[in-house]
Design a protein that fits this description.
Strand order of the largest sheet: 7-8-9-4-10-11
CATH superfamily of one domain: P-loop containing nucleotide triphosphate hydrolases
CATH class of one domain: Alpha Beta
C-alpha cells in the first residue's frame, strides 16, 4: 500500500482510451490534518470510461472528500494522510499536477463561489482555456456553447457577484464544461437550481456522456431525474462504500433507503404502501409517474373504496374524506405590505417590477420561481438589506425606508441562502451570543436565551464546537438558531435545506413547522417543490421580477403549463394527479395518503 507524503515528480495526463478504466481507487483511506477519525476508509472502486455513476450518502459520509481525491486537491492542497492508490486516466493522481489533471478531469465544487474568479460571466468561463493558450476564436466559441448548455446564453457581460445562487452554480458548471474534459466529477452541482434547470443540467450531462463517451461521477441527494440516466449508484456511510448497484434496485427498497438516509421517491412511497398490502410485487413498485398511474388504475376496480360501493369518487367525497387544512387567516393582522415595489441593481434591468403583496401575521408563505426571478431580492427588502428604488414596504408596522436593517432585525429574522455568509464566531455558543449583544441584551438574559435556543434546535451538544467543523446541515441550523435567539415575529429563510441530506431536511422542516405553529410568520424561499407542497399554506410564484401566481399549493401546482414557463416542475404527486384527471377531476393531491384515501377509510390525524 502506498502512502503519499509529498507530490514528488509530477506526471502529465493522457486521454482515456475506450474500454479502459477512467477512475480506479485501491484501498484508499484519508484523514484530514489534525483530525482523529478517517474520512475515507479502505475504498476500492472502478469506474469504466463512459459510465454515469451517482454517489449518495448522508452528510459527512465522505462524498466531497472522495471527489477532492480525484483531481489531486487531496493530497496536494489538503495534505493530511492519504493511503492507497488513486488513479485517473491511468495516472497516479498524487503525483500528477492538478493543472494537468484539469485537462482530463473537471471538478465542480459544492460551493460555486469557491471557483468563480472572473469579474464577468464571460471572463470567468474563459479563464481555463486562456490559461492553456487555446486560440482566441476557439475560446469565444467554447464560452458561448458552454453558457448555452447551462442556460446562461446572453449573460456574457453580467457581473458575476450579482448573479443569484442558482446562476452562480450554472456558471461554475460552464467553467468546467468549457475545458472539454473526458471525466466530470460534480459535487451537488444542482442544489441551488430551479427544477427545470436541474433537469436540464442532468440532460446535458447525459447527452455529453452519450455523444462524447464522457465519464461522470455525480454527488447528489435528489434522485427522480437520475434513476433512468445513471448506470450505477454508490452509497457512502461513515467513509465506506456500504451499497452499490442499479438505481432501480435501491429506490424500490424503502427500508434500505431509510437505513441509508436517502429520500424516497413519492411515487415509490405510494407503491410501497400497495406492496405492503400485498396488492403488487416488489418489481412493480413504481419509479415514475406513468407507472404509478397505471398501477392505481389497475387497483381501483378491485380495492377502491368507492368502486366497492358502485360509483366513482367525486371531488366533495374525496375532500370530505380527508382532514381539512387550517382556514386562511382572514382576521389576522398584516405582517408585510408591499406597494408598487421596483428595484434595480446598478448594472442590470429592474430586478423587481411593480410588486403589490400582502402577507398576514401567522402565514407560512413559500416564494418560488426560476433562478434570477427576484425571490431573494424581494426577501432582502423585508428586513431592509435592500431599499426600494420605487414604492414602499411596511413590515410589522415599520416602513423599511425609515429604519436601518439593524433595527428591523430585532423583529424580522433573515437566514441567508449560504449559512457561511453569517457565521463567523469561534463556537456555536458565541455565534448565538453575538446578535443578542448587538441588540443590547446583557448577561443573564443572553445566557437564558442561548440555553433555550440550543435546546429548541437540538444544538446543545455542539455548544462549544467550532461551527465550521460541522456539516452544512448543522451550519444551516446554527444560522437559524442565531436568528431565533432574537425571537423574531417574522422569519425569512432562504433555501433552508440546500445541500442537506434527508435527515437534515426533515430536522430543519420540523423546526420551521414548530416555529410556525407557535405563531411565527414564515417566508421560505425554496426550489424543493415537495417541501413547498407539504409545508407551505400559500405559494407565490415569481417570474422576471413580478408575481405570476399566488394561492394554495393545490391551486398553484395544478397550473402545470404556467409553472413550466417559470422553470418550475410541480411535485411528483401533483403531476401524478394530472395523469389521473379522469378519476380525480381537477383535484390536485400533494400527499400519498390522499391517494390511499381512494382505497380505504381510515382515521386521518393531522401532524
Amino acid at each position: 500500500m502506498e502512502t503519499v507524503e509529498a507530490v514528488g515528480t509530477l506526471e502529465t495526463v493522457e486521454t482515456v482510451k475506450p474500454g479502459k478504466n477512467a477512475i480506479e481507487l485501491n484501498n484508499v483511506s484519508y484523514c484530514y490534518p489534525n483530525a482523529q477519525e478517517l474520512s475515507l476508509k479502505n475504498i476500492s472502486l472502478t469506474v469504466k470510461k463512459g459510465k454515469f455513476i451517482v454517489l449518495m450518502g448522508s452528510t459527512g459520509a465522505g462524498k466531497t472528500t472522495l471527489s477532492l481525491c480525484l483531481n489531486g486537491l487531496i493530497p496536494q492542497l489538503l495534505e493530511g494522510k492519504l493511503t492507497g492508490q488513486v488513479s485517473v486516466a491511468g495516472k497516479n493522481v498524487g503525483k500528477t499536477a492538478v493543472q494537468s489533471m484539469s485537462k482530463v478531469l473537471g471538478l465542480v465544487l459544492q460551493d460555486p463561489e469557491t471557483q468563480i474568479i472572473g469579474r464577468t460571466v464571460e471572463e470567468d468561463t474563459a479563464f481555463g482555456p486562456r490559461n492553456f493558450l487555446v486560440p482566441f476564436d476557439e475560446i469565444n466559441l467554447r464560452v458561448d456553447q458552454s453558457l448555452e448548455k447551462v442556460r446562461l446564453k446572453g449573460y456574457n457581460q453580467r457581473i458575476s457577484e450579482e448573479l443569484s445562487g442558482g446562476e452562480k452554480q450554472r456558471l461554475a458548471i460552464a467553467g468546467v464544461l468549457v475545458m472539454e474534459p473526458e471525466i466530470l466529477v460534480l459535487d451537488e452541482p444542482t442544489s441551488e437550481l430551479d427544477p427545470i434547470g436541474r433537469s436540464e443540467i442532468y440532460q446535458t450531462l447525459d447527452d455529453l456522456r452519450r455523444k462524447r463517451d464522457l465519464t461522470i461521477l455525480l454527488v447528489e441527494h435528489s434522485s427522480e431525474e437520475l434513476i433512468h440516466k445513471a448506470d450505477e449508484v454508490l452509497v457512502l456511510k461513515q467513509g465506506e462504500v456500504v451499497w452499490k448497484g442499479l438505481p432501480t434496485e435501491l429506490f424500490r427498497n424503502l427500508p434500505l433507503l431509510s437505513q441509508l438516509g436517502i429520500k424516497p421517491l413519492p411515487v415509490s412511497q405510494l407503491g410501497w404502501d400497495f406492496y405492503e398490502k400485498g396488492w403488487i410485487t416488489f418489481a412493480e413498485i413504481p419509479l415514475d409517474i406513468p407507472s404509478a398511474a397505471n398501477i392505481i388504475r389497475a387497483l381501483l376496480p378491485k380495492y377502491g373504496h368507492w368502486h366497492k360501493h358502485g360509483h366513482v369518487p367525486v371531488q366533495e367525497e374525496i375532500k370530505n374524506h380527508l382532514f381539512k387544512q387550517e382556514p386562511y387567516l382572514l382576521e389576522a393582522e398584516i405582517a408585510v405590505q408591499v406597494s408598487d415595489l421596483f428595484y434595480q441593481y446598478n448594472s442590470s434591468q429592474p430586478a423587481l417590477r411593480g410588486i403589490n403583496l400582502t402577507i398576514k401575521t401567522g402565514e407560512f408563505v413559500a416564494l418560488i420561481g426560476q433562478n434570477g426571478a427576484g425571490k431573494t431580492t424581494l426577501a432582502k427588502h423585508f428586513n431592509g438589506l435592500l431599499k426600494p428604488t420605487r414604492g414602499e414596504i411596511i413590515v410589522e408596522g415599520m416602513n423599511t425606508l425609515q429604519y436601518d436593517s439593524s433595527d428591523l432585525s430585532k423583529t424580522i429574522g433573515y437566514v441567508f441562502q449560504n449559512p457561511d455568509h453569517q457565521i463567523f464566531s469561534a463556537t456555536v455558543e458565541k455565534e448565538l451570543e453575538f446578535g443578542l449583544k448587538n441588540a443590547g441584551y446583557k448577561g443573564q438574559e443572553i445566557k437564558q436565551r442561548v440555553d433555550e435556543v440550543l435546546q429548541y434546535t437540538g444544538l446543545e451538544r455542539y455548544r462549544s464546537v467550532h461551527p465550521f467543523s460541522l456539516g452544512k446541515g448543522e451550519r444551516q441550523m446554527i444560522a437559524v438558531a442565531s436568528i431565533l435567539a432574537l425571537k423574531p415575529k417574522l422569519l425569512i429563510i432562504d433555501e433552508p435545506t440546500t445541500g442537506s441530506d434527508w435527515a437534515g431536511v426533515q430536522s430543519m422542516m420540523a423546526l420551521i413547522c414548530k416555529l410556525h405553529a407557535a405563531g411565527t410568520t414564515i417566508i421560505m424561499i425554496s426550489h424543493d417543490m415537495d417541501l413547498v407542497a407539504q409545508h407551505a399554506k400559500r405559494v407565490i410564484v415569481m417570474k422576471e421580477g413580478g408575481v405570476m401566481l399566488d394561492g394554495t399549493p393545490e391551486d398553484v401546482f395544478s397550473e402545470e403549463q404556467l409553472l413550466l414557463d417559470s422553470a418550475i416542475i410541480p411535485p411528483q404527486l401533483c403531476r401524478l394527479s394530472a395523469h389521473l384527471k379522469d378519476i380525480l377531476g381537477h383535484r390536485t393531491f400533494i400527499e400519498s395518503r390522499e391517494f390511499m384515501a381512494l382505497f380505504e377509510r381510515q382515521e386521518q390525524k393531522e401532524c
